[in-house]
Design a protein that fits this description.
14% helix, 8-stranded antiparallel β-barrel, Lipocalin, 152 residues, single chain, mainly beta, 8 strands
């Protein structure tokens, strides 16, 4: 598999945080399904995008699934994500399955400088007002991700 494709799959971790992209500004129920899109980078030049869905598992945790798309908007990988608040901030894990059977996994963290919210729900709602960003890693590969909330 090409390094860029492998990295793209790893970018899927973005999706974990991509959940934050599509929150409504009203309080969310634990069983509310959310969905949206994400953008991510691998290294300095490779850029990827995809779609995600998920739900809040509690006030400080969420989980869901995602799809990584190629330039023709066709799925090239899919996976799952999870997120939770820790003492160090917003963090999570992701898993990816590439068409053809390869599997990858990694971690992500959010960079929410200036954000004063105390729950994952508040973080999701914050994306409606301001783009958020973070980073991801899988072995030696790493990159960044960006989310902006949209009303739906």
């Amino acid at each position: 598999m090409l390094p860029a494709m492998r990295a793209a799959l790893l970018v899927l971790l973005l999706l974990t945080c991509a959940l934050a992209q599509s929150a409504k500004s009203r309080p969310l129920k634990a069983d509310t399904t959310l969905h949206g899109t994400f953008n991510a980078s691998v290294g300095r030049s490779a850029q990827f995008r995809g779609r995600w869905n998920g739900q809040l598992d509690s006030r400080n945790a969420g989980s869901g699934s995602w799809i990584l798309l190629n330039d023709a908007h066709k799925s090239v990988a899919e996976g799952t994500w999870s997120a939770q608040k820790s003492a160090a901030g917003w963090r999570g894990t992701w898993h990816a399955w590439v068409k053809g059977g390869r599997q990858y996994s990694g971690s992500w963290q959010a960079d929410l400088e200036g954000f004063s919210g105390k729950s994952f729900e508040e973080m999701l709602n914050h994306t409606m007002e301001q783009q958020i960003a973070g980073s991801w890693q899988s072995g030696k590969l790493a990159g960044n991700w960006w989310l902006q909330g949209t009303k739906w």
